[in-house]
Structures are given as C-alpha cells and as structure tokens.
Amino acid sequence: MNFAMWLLQKFGVPERNESLIGDLIEERAAGRSTLWLWGQSIAAIADTVTRDLRDHWVLALRAIGIGWAATFLISYFWYMVVTQGVAWWWKLGQMGPCGRALASLLFPVNLIVNLVIWPVALGWIVARTHGARTASMVLGFAASVALCAPWVCVQCVPPDSAEPNLILACSGVLGVLVGGLLPQPRKRTGAV
Amino acid sequence: MTRVDFFHTMKEMSKAQPLSERELLILLALIRLEPEAYGVPIAREIEARAGRMVALSSVYTALDRLEARGLVKSNLGEAASVRGGRAKRYFQVTAQGVRELREMRRALTTMWTGIPTLEGGKA
Q1: Per-residue b/e over B57-93, b at no fewer than 16 CB within 10 Å?
Q2: Residues contacting residue B37 through CB under 8 Å, at least 6 positions apart
Q3: How far apart are CA B81 and CA A32, in angstroms?
Q4: A31 — alpha (psi -120 to 50), left (phi > 0) or beta?
Q5: How far apart are CA A122 and CA A69, in angstroms?
Q6: Which of A96, A163, B67, B111 sits at a 20 to 30 Å CA gap from B93?
Q7: What angle do CA B21, B22, B25 make, to 5 degrees?
C-alpha cells in the first residue's frame, strides 16, 4: 500500500477510511498523479484533525496535559534516579573498572533515551489513552511539543548552543508522531 | 435554562441550519448521479458542472454531516478489486433532503428575482 494511504489509515477516520481509500485507489488507477494522491491524503488527515480538535477540545487539552505530565514525570525520574545516581556513585569513588566503563556509557545512553525512547514512549502513551481519536490527539500533543520544546530545552539543558535544543525539539516531535502511529486506531463509536 | 435544555436547543439549532454551498452542490450531484452516487463520481460531477475542485475527504465530511441531519442515507456496495478490495459507499437523498432542496431553491429564487444588477450578462 502507498505510504500516503498508510498514513491515512493510521491518522484518518476509521469508519470513513475504507470508502475513501477505495476511491483514492480507483482514481490512482484512472491516471491521477502521486502528487494528487498525497494532496488528497493530507487534506483528509487535516480535515479529521481540525474537526476533532474543534469538536473535542476538552479531550485535546487532556491529551496535551497527559503528554506533558508524563514528560515531566519521566524526565524527573530519569534525571534523579539514573543520571544523579550514577554521578553520586562516581563521586563516592566506589566504582570498579566495570562500573566506570558502564558510567562512561551514560552519555550516549542518555542521548538515545532523550532523543528517541522518551518521545516515542510519550506518543505511545497519548495514543493509548485517546484510542478513539488517536490521530488528532497525537498531532495536538506533537504541536504543543513543537511550540514548547525549545523553551523547555533552554530551561533544562545548559544552553551552550541552539543546535542541541533544536535537535531535541525536532526529535521530540518526530518521536511523538512515530510513537502515536504504533498503536492500532480503535473503532470510533457514535458520529464520525 | 438547564444544561440539558441548552444542549438540546443547540442540537436543534444545528439541525435547522441552512445548507452550505458545498452541501447544496453535493445534494444536487447526488440527485443527478443516483443510484451510482459515491465519492469519486460526486467529486467529478461537481468539478465538471460547477467548475469547483473538491477534495474527496471534504465530500465525505459533508456527506457525514448531511447523513447526521437525515438529509441523505448511505449503504455499502460490494468490494471491488479495482479499489483494492474496498467497498463503495453509495449515497441517496432522503425525502427530507429533497424538501430541504426545494425550500432552498424557493428562498434563493425569491431573493434573485427583481434585482436589475443581476439581470443580463454584464457586471
């Protein structure tokens, strides 16, 4: 299946998707361009998201709230327990060669966790807690991450340069979207 | 007014809203295409006759809205291999939809008649 249609299946309205995707396949076979197909798919996703965010703004606020609460809880746990714990252990001078080798891995591990694992986990959490309107809620939270991440990064990380914060912000948004795509969208109940 | 009354009134008001231009075009296209009215021909019909490009998703959005208002009804056809094994969703205008269209035409015709600026072909 075309990537655009796969995205539509993930982010669109499940009840409407089958007919819409069928129509798109039919039109593509009739000679419509790839650009047209992408335009239609993006329009369908944008349409669904706009309607959901407008009609279910309380749910959208809840998704953003849950996402950010999870962000702060996870960050706090990771910083206090893992990063500070290893630093404290290091200071005590009780580390053997094995421990020092493990501690030297902390920086790359920290990088991978912050750039990849946490954003994906956050997207997954938001998607799982808002199964019926996954697409809109994940995109709403990703938009809030895109807006707030540079500011949060400046607050949390020593601002040596703008690039690391920008990378963190971009990877955050991307990770949230990937994490949001992992769970299967649930069937909606009631009106679409 | 209680909370329940308020939401009931709002719901009734949304049902009584006049048809938008897109909804009107879609309803007219449906009547022209029946019984073969589904997403692709509806969009093509509007493009060919009214010269308006419409996204397929916005056709379905409008049709969902019209169905919720009881102006159209839909049923699923059989799955076709040319559509990747997916079924067509056929739409039909209900009696209430036809009444709404007649009322809309009456209102528009009344408004249109007797305006000298709109008579003839010059702006």
Answers
A1: bbbbbbbbbbbebebbebeeeeeeeebbebbbbbbeb
A2: B29, B30, B90, B91, B92
A3: 18
A4: left
A5: 10
A6: B111
A7: 85
Give yes or no for a contact between A67 and A126, defined as CB atoms under 8 angstroms apart: yes
Reported confidence tier of residue B8, pLDDT bands at 50, 70, 90: low
Q: Tokens in use for B73?
A: 């009804």
ipTM: 0.76
CA A42 – CA A49 distance, rounded (Å): 10
Q: Which residue of B has its CA nearest to A28?
A: B83
CA distance A95 to B115: 92
d(CA A179, CA A55): 24
Summarised one tens digit per residue, pLDDT across range A78-94 is: 888 777 777 777 666 66
Please write the tens of the pLDDT for every residue from B9-45. Answer: 655 555 567 888 999 999 999 999 988 899 999 999 9
Q: Model confidence at A161, in pLDDT bands (50, 70, 90)?
A: low
A25–chain B Cβ distance below 8 A for any pair: yes
Residues from chain B contacting residue A23 (CB–CB below 8 Å): 38-40, 56, 83, 88
Nearest to B87 among A19, A191, A192 (CB): A19
At A144 the three-state DSSP class reads helix
pLDDT at B99: 94
Domain B17-111 has CATH 1.10.10.10: yes
With CB atoms and an 8 Å threshold, state whether B86 touches A47.
Answer: no
Roughly what angle, to the nearest 10 degrees, separates helices B56-68 and B21-33? 90
The tokens describing B35, both together, are 């019984």
Tokens of A44: 């369908």
Contact at CB, B56 and A40, closer than 8 angstroms:
yes
